[in-house]
């Protein structure tokens, strides 16, 4: 009987081992924001402004430093951190904008310098304020444009002064500054339509550490070695008897053949030897000071060269002339015909009523206050003047200005007379030609909204407490 053939058992093949899960790869570091375009902006627009500021003089060096701080350093730092950091909190934001405070400190120092042109300081304050566009989320270019408009107001004065003095350096500086701000507006409009976006998934602002900049190898071959200088010719050795010859000339103690000088031959001991020397006398500048004057000549009050408080009692036919007063406070009681302020500095005039005209000519930093009634005021060639008027004469007041700057008018609000409003008197105009005729309009800088934003000057109390009283009264 045949044995049954045994079938080979099927050998189970071992299952291939499952691959172990690969460890999770760390998230790649977010590349830093490419700011090559910003470096070109700095090179083409910021650097020329810094150089132009330095060419204006040593006192203008801080102006160039402010441009360098704001645009070459601070703004670039903000854009770099925004690409990799979360939005900072208020404390961190204050630390980030600390350089702005330093810029304002430099402007305060320039403003205290009486010889420094104030128009540069006022223009720079507007430019410094434009850096805060990074905190605006909706069309931040509008904020920068408004700051540029305000700065242009003062830059136009700089151009005017430079034109009168035939100086091209301020003209070039003004041109470069405006070009810089316009380019910044174009960049913001193109790249930051909704403002600067911080990285919500980035690191904390306080933990940010800038990557060290790798040092790249030089792209060109090193310069050839400088050839060695030819060897200097050997100095011949002194003769063998050199020391002996020198000893014979000067002696053992080195003072041979030196003559002793008597005291009578010394100029500092004998004054007679100095008699022929003529010393140049220093010329002393004598400042002519005129005596103060306050007297009534016929119907004219002459108030001249005053530096202290002066009080007058006038009648309806009296004219008051206030001339060449400095730091003076003139109080005029009664109803007079007219008041003229000519060539005064930091002088305050308070009067009850003026039947004709208040005239201000060739003055600087002066103030005038009407307590009862005033119809006409004329301001000519004056830099810095504020006029305070009561509510009763607001509707009938007429102000004429020419060749003047930094003028303001203040009056009580119609709703609340304890709330004083101060508005700038326009000194910038826009001229257009329409139908062969010249049309002149006040600049948009003096529109109601702009004035309120720029000035915001509302007083809760009447200015008479400070204007109407002399110091120490």
The geometry reads as flat
Please report the distance between the alpha carbons of the first and last residues.
149 Å
Structural classification: alpha/beta
CATH superfamily caption of one domain: Adenylate cyclase-associated CAP, N-terminal domain
Work out the number of β strands.
15
| Mean pLDDT figure | 79
Give me the Rg, rounded. Answer: 40 Å
Report the total helices: 10
User: Could you list the spans in which at least 5 consecutive residues all have pLDDT below 50?
Assistant: 1-14, 16-32, 213-221, 456-461, 468-473
Organism: Blastocystis hominis
InterPro entries: Adenylate_cyclase-assoc_CAP, Adenylate_cyclase-assoc_CAP_C, C-CAP_CF_C-like, CAP/MinC_C, CAP_C_sf, CAP_N, CAP_N_sf, CARP_motif
Protein name: C-CAP/cofactor C-like domain-containing protein
GO cellular component, one term: cytoplasm
Descriptive account of the structure:
With 473 residues, the protein is an alpha/beta fold. Among the domains are: 36-205, Adenylate cyclase-associated CAP, N-terminal domain (Serine Threonine Protein Phosphatase 5, Tetratricopeptide repeat); 293-421, Pectate Lyase C-like, CATH 2.160.20. It has 10 helices and 15 strands. The strands form 2 sheets. Strands 1, 2, 3, 4, 5, 6, 7, 8, 9, 10, 11, 12 and 15 form a 13-stranded mixed β-sheet that branches. A hairpin with a 2-residue loop joins strand 1 and strand 2 (300-304). Helix 6 packs antiparallel against helix 7 (168-191). The longest helix is centred in the N-terminal third of the chain and has 25 residues, at 141-165. The N and C termini lie far apart (149 Å). Belongs to the CAP family. GO terms for molecular function: actin binding; adenylate cyclase binding. This is C-CAP/cofactor C-like domain-containing protein. Residues 291-425 form the C-CAP/cofactor C-like domain.
């Amino acid at each position: 009987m045949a044995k049954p053939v045994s079938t080979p058992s099927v050998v189970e093949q071992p299952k291939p081992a499952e691959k172990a899960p690969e460890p999770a790869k760390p998230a790649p570091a977010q590349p830093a924001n490419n700011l090559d375009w910003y470096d070109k902006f700095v090179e083409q627009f910021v650097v020329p402004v810094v150089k132009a500021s330095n060419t204006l003089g040593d006192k203008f060096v801080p102006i160039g430093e402010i441009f360098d701080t704001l645009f070459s350093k601070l703004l670039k730092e903000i854009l770099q951190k925004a690409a990799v950091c979360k939005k900072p909190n208020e404390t961190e934001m204050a630390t980030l904008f600390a350089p702005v405070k330093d810029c304002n400190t430099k402007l305060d120092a320039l403003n205290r310098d009486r010889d420094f042109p104030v128009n540069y300081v006022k223009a720079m304050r507007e430019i410094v304020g434009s850096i805060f566009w990074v905190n605006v989320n909706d069309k931040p270019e509008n904020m920068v444009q408004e700051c540029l408009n305000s700065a242009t107001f003062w830059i136009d004065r700089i151009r005017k002064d430079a034109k009168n003095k035939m100086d091209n350096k301020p003209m070039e500086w003004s041109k470069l500054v405006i070009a810089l701000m316009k380019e910044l507006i174009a960049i913001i409009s193109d790249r930051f339509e909704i403002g600067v976006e911080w990285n919500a998934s980035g690191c904390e602002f306080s933990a940010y550490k800038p990557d060290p900049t790798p040092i790249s190898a030089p792209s060109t071959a090193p310069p050839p070695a400088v050839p060695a200088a030819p060897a200097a010719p050997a100095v011949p050795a002194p003769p063998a008897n050199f020391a002996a010859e020198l000893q014979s000339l000067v002696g053992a103690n080195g003072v041979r053949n030196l003559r002793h000088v008597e005291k009578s031959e010394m100029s500092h001991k004998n004054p007679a030897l100095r008699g022929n020397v003529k010393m140049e006398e220093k010329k002393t500048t004598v400042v002519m000071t005129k005596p103060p004057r306050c007297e009534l000549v016929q119907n004219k009050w002459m108030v001249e060269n005053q530096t202290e408080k002066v009080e007058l009692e006038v009648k309806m036919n009296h004219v008051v002339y206030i001339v060449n007063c400095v730091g003076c406070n003139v109080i005029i009681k009664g109803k007079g015909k007219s008041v003229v302020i000519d060539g005064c500095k930091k002088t305050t005039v308070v009067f009850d009523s003026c039947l004709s005209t208040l005239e201000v000519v060739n003055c600087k930093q002066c103030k005038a206050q009407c307590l009862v009634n005033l119809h006409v005021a004329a301001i000519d060639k004056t830099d810095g003047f504020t006029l305070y008027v009561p509510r009763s004469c607001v509707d009938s007041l007429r102000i004429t200005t020419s060749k003047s700057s930094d003028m303001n008018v203040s009056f009580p609000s119609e709703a609340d007379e304890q709330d004083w409003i101060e508005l700038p008197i326009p000194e910038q105009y826009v001229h257009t030609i329409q139908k062969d005729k010249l049309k002149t309009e006040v600049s948009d800088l003096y529109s109601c909204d702009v004035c309120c934003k720029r000035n915001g000057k509302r007083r809760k109390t009447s200015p008479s407490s400070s204007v109407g009283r002399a110091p120490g009264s």
